[in-house]
Amino acid sequence: MLTAGLIVATLAAVLHAYIFVMESLTWTSPRTRAVFGTTEQEAQATRQLAFNQGFYNLFLGVVTLIGVVAVFAGFTAVGAALVFAGVGPMLAAAVVLLVSARDKARAAITQGLFPAVAVVLLVAGLTL
């Protein structure tokens, strides 16, 4: 279960790296605007905010990946703590999105599914 949790946590990190690309690098492109449901004017007006938010997503992914590597290197306690420090806020942000914007439920589920599964599998793998 631990290995499965780490694999799913890695998928969460990869997804959040992709979100970083969209928010920080391609925010005003037609494709990214379609994903986030923004107009060109809205994307231009929120470009700096999205740029910053993208880096939050990237940093969460990086912390998660460092934790995964640490667990596989034999530093289970430290690695698990880092993985939880990465996927925990990913999951919390998805819950906040779901609660605050019901019309964004699909995005919240997409953002939160891998972290939620990772948390369940990691807890099971560490306690069983």
TrEMBL record:
Alphabetized, the UniProt keywords read: Membrane, Transmembrane, Transmembrane helix
Listed Pfam families: DUF1304
Q: Which domain of life is it from?
A: Bacteria
Any transmembrane segments, and where? 55-75, 82-101, 107-126
Q: Which InterPro entries match?
A: DUF1304
Is Transmembrane a UniProt keyword of this protein? yes
UniProt-recorded name of the protein: Transmembrane protein
